[in-house]
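User: Predict the structure for this protein chain, please.
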Amino acid sequence: MSDTMDSIEMASETGDPSKCENVSESFQFLCYMAAAVESENVSVCEKIQGNASLMGCYMAVAVNTDNVSICEMIEHEEFEYACYTGVASETQNITVCDKIRNEQIRHECIEKVEKDKGQQLA
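Assistant: Here is the predicted structure, written as structure tokens:
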């Protein structure tokens, strides 16, 4: 387990996905996600097996880089909406919420951004 955690830490610190090649399969997605976020390189996510883990990686890179266009790569609606909400909240840009087609979730996104803005002013 120590080698696994060391590899994940190295990938997280360096953004080098090659550090993940010998990580056990059950932890490999975390390693690749850490490397993708650190390197701000969404293509590293493509190494991840499993749709939910892949979408989570896209979302993490999008929020970390404030890049809303990465959210458009997400094929699962719930992950896509969470991605838009995350980027909108991180950037405090309510217009990002307009990309959400579901009216209720779009409204929740707007409320979250407004709440986050209010907390920063306090």
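The mean pLDDT is 91.
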